[in-house]
Amino acid sequence: MAFIDYYKILGIDKNATEKDVKAAYRKLARKFHPDLNPNDTEANKKFHQINEANEVLSDPEKRKKYDKYGENWQHGEEHEKYAQQQRAQGGRQYSGFGGGHGQGFESYEDFGGGDFSDFFQSMFGGAAGQTRGQVKYRGQDYNAELHLALKDISETHKQTLTVNGKNIRITIPAGVENGQVIKIAGHGGPGVNGGPAGDLFITFLVAPDPNFKRDGANLHTTVKLDLYTAILGGEVTIDTLTGKVKISVKPETQNSTRVKLKGKGLPVYKHEGQAGDLLVTYDIQLPTNLTEKQKELFSELAGR
Predict the structure, then answer these.
(1) What's this model's pTM, rounded to 2 decimal places?
(2) Are residues 128 and 12 in the same domain?
(3) If you ran DSSP here, which 8-state letter would residue 107 be given?
(4) Looking at 100, 132, 164, which one is the last position of a domain?
(5) pLDDT tens-digit series, residues 164-173
């Protein structure tokens, strides 16, 4: 297995900040997301490499181990302890691990060539490892993003995701927050030597809606109201997340008046049967292109 340069995968250098890592990941994840490249196996492979790189470099502890031990950052400390034991018992000496850019052992050739992963496998997972008892390692956690519209979270529903080439059917709870993360246990990377699989962490990203502004479970919207209905009263039809509704307008309604439609907002997360409110603000529209007759009537009303 060749050395995996996570910095190169994300297109950043080793001194990149956490903000740089996040920005690079988001940009590349959007570009290579399977939903946008459904029949592109290379894009799908690239997407998983990007997720793997982000999983390591976005976590300060994991990144520190990766910079020290390279590709084998998950098991580096165990290998180092083993080396210390070998030296204490008079075993073959070696210098330890190189940095995150593939430096390796100083006496690397003494182990028969190959790459680091082959050596580690013979130590912990291959035939030589069998004599000492295999060490089980937990699989790597995966991170994924799920982009949703506001309407998508107006009710609980199921959706199928493709992660690492596998279809996973998940339940999206109504009312989830933008940026909220859920864990799907056991759907991360496979374990080593019979170890448990990692977990899948999904971040929900709810896009802004052109008609509604969210405030927790409450929604805000602005509705245009003609001058005549505002003065005389009447009815107006407005959009909600679940369809159109008619509401009554009181006579002499003033501009920027706000009315509340109880229970017409978003469902309250994990509180079945509860929902926020829809707050409607009226934007009164003045008439244009008046006829001469209409102008006369307005003049009469104005006492001119």
Answers:
(1) 0.54
(2) yes
(3) T
(4) 132
(5) 788 889 999 9
